[in-house]
Specification:
The chain has 215 residues and is mainly alpha-helical. The chain has ten helices and no strands. 76% of the residues lie in helices and 0% in strands. The longest helix has 35 residues. The protein is globular, with a radius of gyration of 21 Å.
Length: 215
Amino acid sequence: MKEANKRQYDSSRRREQANETRVRIISAARALFITQGYGQTTIKQIALEAGVAAETVYAAFRNKSALLRQVWYVDFRGDEDQHALYDRPEMQAILAEPDLIARIRRHAIFVTANNRRMAPLLDALTGAAATEPDAARMLEEWAGRRLDVATRYAAAAAATGQLATTEDECRDILFATMDGALWSRLVEQRGWSDSKYAAWLGEGWISSFSRAQDR
């Protein structure tokens, strides 16, 4: 029994160490992609920054392209959980709000926080996309997923019976305003606070989407 417990402990410890190593590699890759550019960053540099061997990086992520994808989704979602952000409890709690105006305001705060978290890496990938196919593919994949989220959100808004525009128009406006470009212009370039931006975004969505704008 003691030997079985020891094997279980050793196995659990190895998994824990492997997870810690993955976190270090992802963190190191993100920092280097942002500071020196995706194209200029090598696996060897990432390994050095993470304090591991280059072979360890390859064993965990296969190649730089796969590592970039994991860095992006950890940056966007906040962790390595494979569940999409839309399907997580925080977003589902927003969608459970029956009043569309209240839902929109909460969603605007949620989107603003995501814009804040992802901005540095998004800027790095946008800058690299013209010459780095991996970066361009990552941005294309993200656009597809953003469209899926906007489509599902618009359908949920329509289901409340409170949507003042068409479901397609709601989808398209959300798709165009959730990507972080407006956040960057108003917060980073014009000095708005996140709270001011979230309030402005929410009121803009309300004026476009809600039948009860005077509430």
